[in-house]
Amino acid sequence: MTKEEVEAIYNYLHENYEYKPEGQLIRKTAPKINKNVRIGQILGSFYYQVPNSQRPCMRATIYFNNKNYTLNLSHFIYIYHHKEKPKMIKYLDENPMNNRIENLSIYSGIEREANKGLVSGSPFKTKNGETRYRYMFQIENNKNGKAGKKISFGSFETLEECNKLSLFIRNLRLTNPEITPNELKIKAMAEFPKSKMRLEKTNKLGFDGVYKRGKSFVCRCRVHGKMHTSTYQTPEEAHNAYLEIKKHHETS
């Protein structure tokens, strides 16, 4: 639905309906050409969200400019008050029949994403015949409607470990929506050291700020003209140290 359509619906609702505190839109005008539409009619009707569902809601259809618009009543009420159509509505009391405006909130992309959580926790066989469980997390779809990015967090020996990481990642995303995939991985690697995951490579030689020296990996970071170097056994450890130095420099 375009911004222009939302604005047209907003104007139509205000011209023809009045909001009641009970969470209702009541008809205040009646077109002469349609005798089935009367002043005082309540917008919306009882509806089950999916077939055989025990979770009812109110559904409504309005018709103007030769076009039908069908949405949950909560969406029309939200548009009526905020001139904005949310992708999804969150009912604060978890009752989809309570359409009072104070009970309606936008169900954010981060919340939808967190509730999806585990994209893949199915077992797979390694080359050695070992059974492991892969964990992937999908970033919420972007504005143009294309699928969001899937982030791999490696694999675990048990599904229980996958589920623990799932909760850990959900909480991180909810409390810090701006966190980057690599930052997520670094925190996850610190919390779950047994996981087999890799950080994103950002240059030809390996991880950003990391250079290989023999069998070791060197972290190199220049701060105030002075080069800081340290050696680690894995590129993940070196890259983690590089990011920590940069973070300390930026906040100091």
Describe what this molecule looks like in 3D.
With 252 residues, the chain is an alpha+beta fold. 31% of the residues lie in helices and 29% in strands. The strands form five sheets. Strands 8, 9, 10 and 11 form a four-stranded antiparallel sheet that branches. A three-stranded antiparallel sheet has the order 3-4-5. Helix 1 (3-16) packs across helix 2 (73-82) and helix 3 (109-116) packs antiparallel against helix 4. The radius of gyration is 26 Å and the shape is elongated. The model has no long low-confidence stretch (mean pLDDT 81).
Helix content: 25-40%
Stretches with pLDDT under 50, minimum 5 residues: none
Secondary-structure-derived class: alpha+beta
The count of helical stretches stands at 6
Distance between the termini: 46 Å
Mean pLDDT: 81
Shape, per Cα inertia axes: elongated
Largest sheet: 4 strands, antiparallel
Number of strands: 14
In N-to-C order, the SSE pattern is HEEEEEHEEHEEEEHHEEEH
Query: From the alpha-carbon coordinates, what is the Rg to the nearest angstrom?
Result: 26 Å
Estimated share of beta-strand residues: 25-35%
Short description:
This protein has six helices and 14 strands.
Which helices and strands, and how do they pair?
Elements: H1 3-16, E1 17-20, E2 24-27, E3 45-48, E4 56-64, E5 67-72, H2 73-82, E6 89-91, E7 104-106, H3 109-116, E8 118-120, E9 123-125, E10 131-138, E11 150-156, H4 159-175, H5 181-191, E12 210-213, E13 216-223, E14 226-232, H6 235-251
Helix pairs in contact: 1-2, 3-4
Index terms:
252 residues; alpha+beta
